[in-house]
Every structure is written in C-alpha cells, then in structure tokens.
Design brief:
Layout lengths: L2 H6 L15 H4 L2 E9 L3 E9 L2 E7 L10 E10 L8 E3 L7 E16 L3 E7 L4 E8 L9 E6 L1
Antiparallel strand pairs: 1-2, 1-6, 2-3, 3-4, 4-9, 5-6, 6-7, 7-8, 8-9
This protein binds manganese (II) ion.
The site of manganese (II) ion has 6 residues, from β2.
C-alpha cells in the first residue's frame, strides 16, 4: 500500500508519527516527447522520461489522439534526456538520417508500470489524457512489440 494511504489514515499534525518525506525530484513532473522522424520509413518516436533517460518506442503510424485506435510501438534503445529537445536534420549517411520534428511534447504522470504494461496520463498539446502501452507479440519484432493507445 502506498504512502498516500499512510497519510490518509492519520492526522499528521496531531500524531507524533513521522510525516513521509517527499523528495522534490519525485514530485517534479516527468517529460514526454513525440518526434516525427522522416527516416527511410516515416515514424513517430514516443519517448518517456524514466530513470534519468528517455525510454523510447518507434510508432510506424501517427500516434492516436482519440480512443479506439491501437498503434504498434516498437521498443527501441534509450535516448539521453537532452534528446527531448532535438529537432533538425540528421545528415545523409548517418544512423536515422532525415528530418526530425517535434510532433508533441509535454509532461506526464506515471500511473502504473511493470514489465508488460505502462499506464500514463499525458499532458501534451496533441496527446492528452490516459494512455497505455501494453506488451504484445504482434509484428515482425515480437520481443520488442507493444501496443500504444488512448483509454
Ligand atoms: Mn526514429
């Protein structure tokens, strides 16, 4: 049970029991970004700040802004946090060559996470509300395949 349950059950101004100390870093909202990447195949890179890196998924079709659309999201390598601000042209001959545009950016709240499911509340311009990433075996990279959708 979470610390918020602990606090809820007590009037901490009236009992000598310890108040939970909340680290400032855990209160800080985490960022997310979606980069539209015009590489050899157009895709959208969905990135979530987690454990001081950007956990990343490549989505072959435009991410869903409405409920009822499920998109394949292929788990790709972590990117540095600074990458969230990157847009511009990756030169010809380099990995991922092509134009990168920031399609959406904002903050998010993590609701749930385990090895097979991640639930977030996104607060971006295009992506707003509750979204889920869930592990699937679909596609040609089953071990890296997730589904991304709005709930
Ligand atoms: Mn990419």
């Amino acid at each position: 049970m979470s610390l918020s349950q602990y606090s809820k059950k007590r009037n901490l101004s009236k009992t000598p029991e310890p108040k939970p100390k909340i680290k400032k870093s855990s209160l800080k909202k985490k960022i997310f970004v979606v980069q539209e990447h015009h590489a050899s195949h157009l895709h959208w890179d969905f990135r979530l700040e987690m454990e001081r890196v950007l956990k990343s998924w490549a989505i072959p079709k435009e991410p869903p802004t409405e409920k009822g659309i499920k998109r394949l999201a292929v788990h790709v390598e972590d990117h540095p946090l600074e990458y969230a601000n990157f847009h511009g042209k990756i030169p010809e001959g380099n990995y991922g060559a092509g134009e990168v545009k920031i399609w959406d950016k904002g903050t998010y709240e993590l609701k749930f996470k385990d090895d097979k499911k991640i639930e977030v509340v996104l607060d971006g311009k295009k992506l707003k509300g509750n979204f889920v990433l869930v592990k699937t075996n679909y596609g040609n990279k089953p071990e890296k395949s997730w589904l991304f959708f709005k709930v």
